[in-house]
From TrEMBL:
Keywords assigned by UniProt, alphabetized: DNA-binding
Protein name from the UniProt record: DNA-binding protein
Taxonomy, superkingdom: Bacteria
Phylogenetic classification of the source organism: Bacteria, Bacillati, Actinomycetota, Actinomycetes, Micromonosporales
Gene Ontology MF terms in the entry: DNA binding
Amino acid sequence: MSVKPIRLMGAHEIRIRLGGVSRQRAYQITSRQDFPVPIADLVQGKVWLTEDVEAWMKAHRRDASDDDEN
């Protein structure tokens, strides 16, 4: 029987995954109502399921062509 490992992300990993945004910007993003709910709120901070965060990023990623038009 194979057990699928649980992959988690904290705020630091989310900052890196978002391209190195500031702590303040990461807080703003993770506080949005449409951002996934953290799986736990630890003393060290909140943690999210990686698959939930990745799905949110995929749905909300800015298209590179949008940058060309501005």
